[in-house]
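ok trying again, last paste got cut off:
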Amino acid sequence: MKKFGYLFLLMAISLCAQKRNNFNFEVKGNTYTGIGNNYIADGTGTFAGFGLGLSFFVIKNFGIGFDFDKAYGNVKEQSVFGNLHSPQFTSGDIYAFYRHPISERFDAEAFIGSGFNSIVSKSNYSSKDFREGGSSFILGAKALYGISSKKKIYVFASPKFYFLTNFTEMDDSAVQKYYAKPTLFNFSLGLRFYL
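nice, full thing came through this time. structure:
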């Protein structure tokens, strides 16, 4: 029942945003790279994939957005990541943003949010996939450039940092931090369409 309530709320908000001509959706290409001292940075290569986004303005230049992203990577160091292969990173995010117009065609956004994430990897020793997941805190920015005369289509570039908290429990606090608190740098290029 709750799922229907959330779906109804999302649709109602979307319809209201459409009437104000502030509702938009995005398609994008993504890369994710582990940074710092953690098992993703040391154990995997760069993930590459795609994403979809929806956002709308709530008050003036402030708004809310939702992203779904999926990316595919490879294991570069099995002694760190485990005897696994073909990892897939999936992320679902909700964020608040502020948009600042810089010129007639150029705008910038800053955003903060949170979400869920999971990494699913294949194993040679089991028919079941190895799954791990957790939550994320997100900080990012977006540069947008209008390519249509009526400001309906924009190209954008977006750097974003994911501070993950995985559901991993280790006895040693240093090992716990290494495996449960990875940081990812995400870079996206895409198109935004206003309805």
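cool. DSSP finds four helices and eight strands in the chain. The CA atoms of residues 58 and 88 lie 33 Å apart.
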